[in-house]
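Page 47, continued from p. 46.
Same chain as before, 433 aa.
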Amino acid sequence: MEKQRTLASSASLTGSALHTGENVTLTILPAPVGHGFKFQRIDLPDEPIVDAAAAYVKTVERATTLVQGMVKIHTVEHVLSALTGMGVDNALIQMDANEPPIGDGSASEYIALINKAGIIEQDAPRRYIDIREPVTIESNGSILVILPDTKFRVSCTQVGPEGRFTQFLSTEITPEIYEKEIAPARTFVFYEDVKPLMDKGLIKGGSLENAIVARGDSVLSKEPLRFPDEFVRHKILDIVGDLALSGRFIRGHVVAVKPGHGINTEAAKLLAERFNAVAPAAAKPVAASPGALDINAVMQILPHRYPFLMVDRIVEFDGELKATGVKAVTINEPYFQGHFPNHPVMPGVLQLEAMAQVASIIMMRRTENEGKIGYFMSADEVKFRKPVMPGDTLFIECELTSAKKRLGKASCRCLVNGEVVSEGILLFGLVDK
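Result:
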């Protein structure tokens, strides 16, 4: 099981922004499990934070812009692409302006920054969006399809005006491939688009040092093309960065024809909504969850043991009333022998039991309940939405909505890859051992 990753330390770089032309210092910092990517404007009062989430995409002309409240972050795709391409799950990105440095127009400077900071594993499983059926979006002559796959792959066709610079590339996205084959590809613009962009107040910081200009069938740049198909490689770079706004790593095959930030971010928004991956608003960086429990700590609270312990660990406590547990569902579970042969499915009643165990942990962590045992009493509004199968990781989210001396009521749900598979309102009681 792959773990979430963050930065080992902080690192900074300074440069000019492509569209605003402003000088900006960007710093990447470590972040706790489940934090995802967030931008922080340290040049503004109260240092507000903007979540790197598709729900906050505002404009997509030549770049992806996020707006949360009154705070804007322009051109987020390159830094998000670098972090995702290098396998980072959680990071805080601080800036003293509203747009990251453009560097040489590629993601190479961000790769160097990430390598300088270093990457470390965290004690929680990585959260994925697993594509199990095709997702298709069409817009203004562009097509983006995401097909089921066990890896993250991108196949892209880039087509310029009048069919110029038509290029195709298909590649898996791994840190090794991304760093060498995708990150060095620079942004580009067609000569006939330059004046309209300047008239709109864009690319104020643009030059042949940070962009390739295609004029007719010729290429104008400070250095020769880094790849014969550099344009399509940069399109893939943008796709990786824009899809990061879905909030999860993707296991699927992205097939894109004439992609742009508009269709990319629409796909990210669709995935976020479909897999419940939209990041919540935040005013300050999320603190590391105190008191997260490993299996030994879980067994000190719960009396259950094999084969009826349905919680492997508690990965997060949100105050005193909420917790998230994890259960890795493997083919070695004893109930799969009979439920069902040749078509193993986790029984719904055991998903309810997992919810009840997490809810019991919330209740029994209270000092006054020390030494008690939680008994599952009833379940209301129970719904089973999708089957849970071997290889799935069950995230069990519970919130205690009522707590009396010996009774507790909790709203719970189980998720796989960010998608709700079961839910219910549970009542349980506490008795002395």
